[in-house]
Design goal:
The complex is a heterodimer of chains A (about 375) and B (about 280). Chain A is built from 14 helices and 16 strands. Chain A is of the alpha/beta class and about 375 residues long. In chain A, the strands form three sheets. In chain A, strands 2, 3, 4, 5, 6, 7, 8 and 14 form an eight-stranded mixed beta sheet that branches. The longest helix of chain A is centred in the middle third of the chain and has 18 residues. The radius of gyration of chain A is 21 Å and the shape is globular. Chain B is built from ten helices and eleven strands. In chain B, helix 1 packs across helix 7 and helix 5 packs across helix 6. Classes of the chains: A alpha/beta (about 375), B alpha/beta (about 280). Chains A and B meet through helix 4, helix 5 and strand 10 of A and strand 2, helix 3, helix 5 and helix 10 of B. The structure holds thiamine diphosphate (TPP), iron/sulfur cluster (SF4) and magnesium ion. Thiamine diphosphate binds next to helix 2, helix 4 and strand 5 of chain B.
């Protein structure tokens, strides 16, 4: 048992196994490097547990089919990379608007456009937050190891089902293809629950009337609720409305429900931030390099710390503000032209030093160490 | 299944009357198509609780909301993709897709041909009014040559699709076409389509009276509906889609009835058999 539980596998396989452990029973996708191993592993695993795998005609259809399966009450997922992530955006917005749980894996490669299919990047940080049109709620988690891809994929399902919001699992090609040991432990009991199902009287049921937790119970088709689901802005009864005072309320709840559940959603790793003069903030493989650089800096007598958002969006703002308050600089190594640095500038104005790289190579710990020394001198 | 006469069919039982008046223009063909569809559902005795309507964006797509069932109004062109996930996840539901000529043949064309190929047990009702009704009357992939639309102010010069031939070639196991002129005949076709185990593609000739009719001086709505008669050739293709046409792709007059039928493996069953075999092997 434990021998089977400890496995040396690539991140993309850990993602698939995490999804299955979380109770995902539907996968629809379209092949794209460097995410295809997620689909391949899902096509092998899902039949074993009675789940459905379907390779669709494109990413738009994949996202549609995933939402369709979830509308039927089944936990569903898709995986893709940059160009495919762009194609999924319209339907992703539908899931946010209609509050249909779903999990989207985006394994980042070099962009823009077809870019560098086999080279790593972290250029979708902003797209993951703002990719679909309009103000919308979305959760993005950013694991930095194979083990964390496994556990964060499980958590992604838990959050998506609990809050009826699309959740993106965002990691770069390096972590996706990295082979590391992972303990394939069963999903924690509290993360296994499906969405809250609607019960009670069918007559007069309002599908979008939220409970006190700001999340409405989900009417399962076939259970007699016979409700309407639409991407049009809708009132509590599920039917379209453009009455401004109603729109304000319903969109307000959509955006507000993530705020309400901040504690549940937020996750970050902080190492040595309390007395740090310089804090390094990064995700994915850049965070792995940052860890190394921070450890070396400490050894050299530099008060350096690491703040790594595991939940990238909504960004763990309060924790970051608090932990970075005493530092004089925040170094942000990222494999793009400065997307995360731009966001952090809002929380630590004037202190941010972006260490960017977008040539398809990962950032080396020595580069980060050098920057740490530079910002302190 | 039991036949229900036109007089004794009570459409109100299948409608969300609280949403009325509905938003369709007076005389719009889509309303007649809705009546035929619900009549077929009633004759088949389908439980409303187990009926799922998935519709795209358009005047056709908005229709779904008025049906007292599980209704899903999704994104433009994608109802077949959503329905594929829904039906695979929930084979116990009867899934009907309502789509328009723009929704299914332009933006959603790729999903249509792949839905035909897979042969999942979905009934797809394509309401062909030869125009983009919802967005105010632009040209569509089925607009008749020389007709005026808001984006063909000097007349349409693009050839049109024959959606039924396209569906058959892509592998739809049941293909049929009827017009709103004869609601009972249309109802029978829809009933057969729902009963058919596999993907059914049904084209409904439906008039956009308010925009297409006006712009092309096609008469008032009764006149438009009656004129469908002169365009129809109510005979089966007999397995052969003929192409004696005044347009390269879309025959006019067009044939109606059941145009193609072939029994082949339904996709959901194929999937489930594949899964069962794997589970047994484990
Ligand atoms: C992605 C996207 N593009 C464009 C539109 C605008 N739009 C809404 S309905 C429609 C055309 C509908 O035409 P059709 O499918 O023929 O339906 P009808 O209204 O004629 O029944 C278009 C282009 C949209 N809603 N979404
Ligand atoms: S615009 Fe045309 S298609 Fe739309 S409701 Fe009016 S008549 Fe029907
Ligand atoms: Mg149309």
């Amino acid at each position: 048992m434990s021998k089977q539980r400890l496995q040396n596998i690539p991140g993309n396989h850990a993602c698939a196994l995490g999804a299955v452990a979380a109770g995902c029973r539907f996968y629809a996708g379209y092949p794209i490097t460097p995410s295809s191993e997620v689909a391949e592993r899902m096509s092998a695993e899902l039949p074993k547990v009675g789940g459905m795998f379907v390779q669709m005609e494109d990413e738009i259809a994949s996202m549609g089919a995933v939402i369709g399966a979830s509308m039927g009450g089944v936990k569903a997922m898709t995986a893709t990379s940059g160009p495919g992530f762009s194609l999924k955006q319209e339907n992703l917005g539908y899931a946010a608007q209609a509050e249909i749980p779903c999990v989207i894996i985006n394994v980042m490669r070099g962009g823009p456009s077809t870019g560098m299919p086999t080279r790593p990047a972290q250029g979708d940080i902003m797209q993951a937050r703002w990719g679909t049109h309009g103000d919308h709620p979305i959760i993005v988690v950013a694991p930095d190891s194979v083990a964390e891809i496994y556990s964060e994929t499980i958590r992604a399902f838990a959050l998506s089902e609990r809050l009826r919001v699309p959740v993106v699992v965002l990691y770069d090609e390096v972590v996706g293809h990295l082979i590391e040991t992972v303990d394939l432990q069963p999903a924690p009991e509290e993360q296994l629950a499906s969405r809250k199902w609607a019960e009670g009287p069918r007559e007069g049921f309002l599908p979008y009337r939220a409970d006190a937790d700001m999340v409405p119970p989900f009417p399962r088709p076939g259970d007699g609720f016979r409700t309407h689901t639409t991407g049009l802005t809708h009132d509590e009864n599920g039917f379209p409305t453009q009455a401004h005072e109603r729109v304000e309320a319903v969109i307000g709840r959509l955006l507000g429900k993530l705020d309400r559940h901040k504690e549940l959603i937020e996750s970050y790793e902080a190492v040595g931030c309390e007395d740090a003069e310089v804090i390094v903030t990064a995700i994915g493989i850049s965070a792995r390099a940052a860890k190394k650089a921070v450890a070396t800096a400490r050894k050299n007598g530099i008060k350096a710390g690491l703040f790594r958002p595991i939940t990238l969006w909504p960004f763990p703002e309060e924790a970051f503000r608090k932990l970075s308050a005493g530092a004089s600089a925040v170094v942000v190594p990222e494999m793009n032209a400065g997307q995360l640095a731009l966001e952090l500038e809002r929380f630590a104005p004037g202190k941010v030093s972006a260490l960017t790289r977008y040539d398809g190579e990962h950032i080396d710990p020595s580069q980060i160490l050098k920057r740490i020394e530079e910002v302190l001198s | 299944m039991n036949e229900i006469s036109a007089d004794s069919f009570d459409i109100n039982e299948y409608l969300r009357l609280e949403l009325f008046p509905h938003f369709l223009c007076p005389g719009c063909g889509h309303g007649m198509a809705m009546r035929a569809m619900l009549w077929a559902v009633a004759e088949l005795g389908i439980d409303k609780d187990n009926l799922a309507i998935v519709s795209g964006i358009g005047c056709s797509g908005r229709m779904g909301a008025y049906v007292d069932a599980n209704t899903f109004h999704v994104t433009h062109g994608r109802p077949l993709a959503f329905a594929t996930g829904l039906k695979l996840a929930r084979p116990d539901l009867t899934v009907i897709v309502i789509t328009g000529d723009g929704d299914s043949l332009a933006i959603g064309g790729n999903h249509l041909i792949h839905a035909c190929r897979r042969n999942l047990d979905i009934t797809c009702l394509m309401l062909n009014n030869e125009i983009y009704g919802m967005t105010g009357g632009q040209v569509s992939p089925t607009t008749t040559l020389t007709r005026f639309t808001t984006t063909t102010p000097y007349g349409n010069y693009e050839p049109a699709f024959d959606a039924c031939r396209l569906a058959e070639a892509a592998g739809a196991s049941f293909v049929g076409r009827e017009a709103t002129l004869q609601v009972p005949t249309l109802k029978n076709l829809i009933r057969e389509g729902i009963e058919h185990k596999g993907f059914s593609f049904l084209e409904v000739i439906s008039d956009c009276t308010e925009i297409y009719g006006r712009k092309n001086a096609l008469g008032n709505s009764p006149e438009m509906v009656l004129s469908q008669k002169s365009k129809m050739r109510p005979e089966s293709y007999g397995g052969l889609m003929s192409n004696k046409v005044d347009q390269p792709f879309r025959p006019n007059p067009f044939q109606t009835g059941v145009l193609a039928r072939n029994e082949r493996q339904e996709y959901g069953e194929l999937c489930r058999r594949h899964i069962a075999a794997k589970q047994q092997a484990e």
